[in-house]
Structures are given as C-alpha cells and as structure tokens.
Amino acid sequence: MCNFRALTVLALFLRSLVALVSAQRSNATTQWPTLSGNAPLVIARGGFSGLFPDSTSDAYRLPLLISLPNVQLWCDVQLTKDGFGICFPDLTLENSSSIQTQFDKGEKEYLVNGIPTKGWFAVDYTLKQLSDVIVTQGIYSRSNKFDGNSYSLLTVDDVATQFKPPGLWLNVQHGTFYNQHNLSMRNYIISASRRVAISYISSPEVGFLRSIKRRISPKTKLVFRFLTQDEIEPSTNQTYGSLLKNLTFIKTFASGILVPKFYIWPEVNLYLEPQTSLVSDAHKEKLEVFASEFMNDYTFSYNYSYDPIAEYLNFIETGGFSVDGVLSDFPVTPSEAIANPLIISKYGASGDYPSCTNLAYKKAIADGVDVLDCPVQMSKDGTPFCFSSINLIDSTTVAQSPFSNRAISIPEIKAGTGIFTFSLTWDEIQTLKPSISNPFTDYKLFRNPKDKNSGHFLTLSEFLALTKNVSSLSGVLISIEHAAYLAEEKKLSVTDAVLGALSKAGFDDQKVLIQSSNSSVLRKFKGKEKYKLVYRIEEKISDIDHSTLDDIKKFASSVVVNKDSVFPKTESFLTGKTDVVEVLQSSNLSVFVETFNNEFVSQAWDFFSDPIVEINSFVVGANIDGVITEFPQTAARYKKNRCFGLPNAPSYMSPVLPDSLIQLITPPYLPPAEAPNPILTKQDVTEPPLPSVSLTPPAPSPGGSTAAAEKSPNGQPKVAASSFLLTMATLLAVLYLF
Predict the structure, then answer these.
(1) E-assigned strands of 384-536?
(2) In this predicted model, what pLDDT tens digit does every residue of 122-167 receive, in sequence order?
(3) d(CA 107, CA 373)
(4) How much is the average pLDDT of 360-384?
(5) Cβ-Cβ contacts under 8 Å for 199 (sequence gap 6 or more)
(6) Where are the beta strands (DSSP E) in 553-622?
(7) Which of 286, 49, 253, 44 is nearest to 167 (CA)?
C-alpha cells in the first residue's frame, strides 16, 4: 500500500501550483481575459497522472496537496457490468491494469463507434470481479516504480467521498458504446449527480449531453469535447471540424468546449502556426474554452524550447486572450522562489541554435542571460575562437566535408577518433556548417531542426566585441580546457591567446570569469588581473575534504559542480542531498551547477518533468549561486516571476524534498542501491604547472592526415592508426547518429 506519510511530506515540501503563472503576469491586479474574468482552471487529468498511474489514490491525492485551491480532479468514467461507474483512462482495461493476469481469457471484440476493437472491457465484469485488479502505469515512457503499490480501481463515489475535491470533472467518452451493451451512462450520471457534487461533465457525444441537460443541476456545467477535426461525431454524423463552425449550435446544450491545444495554436512539423480565433469566437458565444493535451514529458512545439511554462503562457497570456482552463497530466508548475541566482549560458542558447554561434549568443542575450560563455579552442594557425568542444565533429558537419581525412586518435583528449580544432586553420573552420546539439536523440527529442545548421562561429575577439557594451550582461565566462596538451604537443598557448584578446578588447576585469577543470590553468591567471577564477569539478562527488578546500581557495573564488553532486540519484529518482554546496560556501566559494536542460528526460522524476521545478529546487533547496543552462530563457523567466518581492511569499515556492518520491516505491520495484560518489581529494586537484610553449612550430604529421606518435600519460608512444580506417570509423559514427 502507499506510504501516505511520505506522500504528505513530499507535498509539504512541494507546495507549488500551475496557477499558471498568475504570478508571472505583468500586472497581477488586472482581470484575466477569460470568459468569467477569473484565473484559468487547472484540471488534473486522472489526478497527477504524469507521475503516478492514472486515476489512482496517490494520483488524486497529490494535486489536492500541492496545486490550486480550486483544482478540478478529472475522472474518465467507465461502467462495469453491474452499472457502477469507475474512473479509468481507457475504454479497455489491459493497458493500465493487471486484468490480463486475473482474466487471461477475457479478451473480447466489440464495435466502438463502428470500429472493431479488441481488449478487456469493464462491461464484461462486475465491480466485485474487478476488486482485485491492480491499476498500473499505462504510458511506458513514464516510471513503473509505483506499480508495486497495489492501487485499486476507484469508483466515482470513491473519488468524491474519499478525497472531497474542490471540483470533480467527469468525462464520458463512450456513452453510445454503453447503450449498445444495455447500460445507460445517462442514468448513471444523473444518479451520481444527486449523490455527489459534480462541477463539470464533458463528452464528445452531442446526443449524450443533450439527453442530460435538463436533468442536471444548473451548478454543473456541460462541456462539449472536440476530437480531431476529421473524426465523426456519432450523434450528428458530422465531423468535429464541421461542428467547430457552428458554435451557436454547441451553445444550445453546453456552456463550454474542450479542445486539443492545436485547435488554438496549430502546429506544422512541431513549429507553431499563427493562432486561430477560436477562443475569441467561443467567448463571443458565451462559451468557455478549455484546452487539453498538456504533458510535460511529451514532444511539443520547438517554439517552447521544451519549457512547459512557456507553452502554458502562450494559452493564457499571449495575444490578449486566455483559455478558461487547461487539462494537464502535470497539475503543478511552481511560480517563484525567493532567490536571485546567476544565469550562466552553456554555449549560448544552445538549446535553440547551434552551440557558440552568433545566433546562439544573440538569443541568450535576448533571453536575459547574466553571464555569456565562450569555451576557447585554438585553430591550427593559432586563432582563439568560441566552440563547444575541441573535437569539430561534435558541433559541425566536418565529417561530411573535404576535411574528413584529418581524423586522428588522441587518447589524452578523447576515446576513439576526432577531427580536432588544431588540425584546421581558422579560414578552413569558417567554411564548416554549424550543427545543433541533440543530446537526447535516443528519446526521439530533437532541437529546432529548422535552424540545425544556422549561424556562424566567432573568434574570441569577435565574441568580446559582441558582449562588451551589452548592459544587461553581468559578465562573460571564458572556459579553457586541454591547455597542457596544446602547449606541449601543438606549441599553442591558449592562455596567452586569451590574455592577449582580453587586453586588446579592453574588458573590465571585474566582468571576466575564467573557468577550467585544470588548476594549472587557473594558477596561470592568478594575480595577473582581477579576473574571477572558476574551478570546474568534472567528477560526481559526495564531499570534499578540508585540505582540498584549502588548496582550491588558493586559485579559485567559485566552483562548478554537476547536478548529481548536489542531488544524487538512481534510475532518475533522487536519493538525497549532499553537503557539497554548504561545504564550498562555508569556505567563501560560490557554487554554480551544470547543466540545466528543458528536455524532461534530463530531469529526475522528482521534478515532475518540469525544468522550473528543478531550478527552484536547486536554488531554494540547495541554495546554489548560479545555474549553467542551455536554455537561458527558462531560467530568466524563473527569476522574473512576479511573486518575487511579495510581503508574504506563497507557500508553493518550497522545493522538492530530495528522497521523498523514492519512499513511495515498494521494495520489489526499488532501483538498485548505488555506491556513493567519491570524495574529492587534494590528489584530484593538484597538477604540475603548464608547460612553456617554444617558438618552434610543431612538425607536420606524415601525410598530413594522421598525428605523429603522441605521448600517453605514462610517457610511452602510441601507435598511430591508419588514416583510411580512422576516417571510415569517423564517418560511420556520424552516419549512425543520423
């Protein structure tokens, strides 16, 4: 059974809502552009079905603890053989329950709106027969870790009496089907409305709504649900697209309409088209408009950069209109936190444009980034430029270019082969097309394909010129890696190149942050100017010993750690919180955390597939000093929320409790325990000084396509691979990605 105490603790630390950004509005005292003038409703589809199995006790309980005071609990009503109404998301039961195990020979085939449909139907079982059926997660991309809680099917009366929701919304999807099986959904709904309070009843069937209109209390609103525009409505034999053109007719039996969100904001290839006039047209007919299909963990328009709040805002604020409510699997969107974190870009707005291009940088500035970053790489002819990696394959089309034969293997830098920045001149690099980063292609999540090759790269001098007079920026961050290799093997001094460019640009020292994972690089900058030095800890750690802290303080004033070093997790469930941030801050070291992305698969389940919940939990729950993100607009929206500065901060500004969600998982479903992350020691930090760079240029490698024998860490020469085989391997790797 469910651990109710754990769920309550989770809720108390989560107190957030989807008040969809009532706090983010430009003027909180103005009336909402809804039909009633009130804030839009939040309708929890099957409860919090984005996390728990749909229509289960925990799914219904959580929104009542953490969402709006008037949240509506949604129940898809199905009828059993003996006429009881149960809340279950589908007409057939097998996808989200254990019924196949209990009744292995129970599959039937019936006509549903004229279409032969196979499955296990509630109409074939009494409520008593279904009493042992367990409800499970039916969307396989969501966690099944709560399936061991033995959730029972709930009746409509169970939901109304056990949870006493402020609003109950019943959806009747297949009234005609039940009539064909000698069960009257009409009679059941009329009877239920006399036993329990029902706020809304929706259905995609005109005939059903018309049949109950005069038998339902005026306090209960009837809502006509539109399906896709080419589907046939069974009562009128018209398409839903045709009915959409006759809202006056809809008004004769309903007070509102429920439409898929693309009825309002159409999409073509996941890009938004101009908004329709549906909301204003419906409001003219005095019809409320509710929008559906809101899910944080599903692919939605690239225009939103995988930020669900940006999508909600587009339905309640943009264009001078607001829908009257949203139907969501995730009825929680935190509004604000009492904090002011520094927003640091990761390769500019690299979630929207190719990394480190002029477009990514301009977008980040427009989005409200505080610190713009430039990871400095060196070309063959010694030009420092901004690029996300020393390997050109990572963010360009070099593998499909005439330079593909320059692939080499350098184990000190990376496993396998690469085409490295120091193998091409700056003029040659400028001929390459940028390529947008797609870190989550395994989940079929792609970034802005329309601009996947847009923009051009900048030299460090061009980057500094772009940012120098931008008043909204607090500073720039210059990142340096592989300096020792470049100095020793390629006779290129990236540190001298950076110092020279900064001096020439006349940059204010106080606005420059120098970042590296190598203490030797930061020591090179120590004392030269008043630059702020940032030490990046690449490893996942659980703690830092005191002698290491003392050493870091000698060459840095800030530290970058990864998210797992703050909130460790196993199989995407948070297992607790470390003291890493507190330990660093106790030594007067600022702590920045990387990398925040909007794609839901990058976040632990505890954050409800919502990037704002994640940011809030790190800022408020862990008290970090800055977020490093590929989507600066999301972090900037978080900072600008209108709740900030209110005399009494809303309760929903609390962060998640890191290990509360995993407590709800029964032992058989618990993820395996993982060994704790190591402690950072002085040995991990201490490095020899950077080698000096001689004026003698490096000798060309044989044939111009492979490197001369490189030295491995133990000083032994490595065997150079065949140019042909390396090139083929590189091309095959790139083709595999496509």
Answers:
(1) 384-386, 408-409, 417-418, 475-480, 512-516, 532-536
(2) 999 999 999 999 999 999 999 999 999 999 999 999 999 999 999 9
(3) 59
(4) 97
(5) 72, 167, 168, 169, 219, 220, 221
(6) 558-562, 569-570, 573-574, 590-596
(7) 44
Is the torsion defined by CA of 203, 209, 215, 221 positive or negative? positive
Strand, helix or coil for residue 78? strand
Return the closest-CA partner of residue 169 out of 290, 295, 43: 43
* CA–CA distance, 249 with 596 (Å, rounded to integer): 48
Helices (H), 494-587: 494-505, 519-525, 546-553, 580-586
* Banded pLDDT at 733 (limits 50, 70, 90): very low
Name all contacts of 483-486 with Cβ < 8 Å and 24+ positions apart: 483/516, 483/518, 483/520, 483/521, 483/524, 483/690, 484/518, 484/520, 484/690, 484/691, 485/410, 485/412, 485/413, 486/378, 486/422
**What is the average pLDDT score of the chain?**
87
Tell me the residue length of the chain: 738
- The residues facing 86 across adjacent strands are 78, 155
The H-assigned helical ranges of 39-174 are: 57-66, 99-102, 156-163
In the chain, DSSP finds a helix count (H) and a strand count (E) of: 23, 33
Which residue, chain included where needed, has tokens 């600008």?
640
Say how far apart CA 693 and CA 500 lie, in whole Å: 15
Q: Among the residues of 416-493, which ranges form H helices?
A: 426-429, 460-467, 483-489
pLDDT, residue 648, reads: 55
Strand ranges, E, within 41-155: 41-45, 72-79, 85-87, 108-112, 115-119, 134-135, 151-152, 154-155
The residues with which 349 forms a beta bridge, in sequence order, are 346
Residues 6+ apart with CB under 8 A from 113: 174, 176, 177, 232, 234
90 phi, psi to nearest 5 deg: -130, 160
> Looking at residue 113, what DSSP letter applies?
T
pLDDT of residue 731: 36
Confidence of residue 65 (pLDDT cuts 50, 70, 90): confident
Task: From 242, 254, 321, select the one nearest 287 (Cα to Cα).
Answer: 254
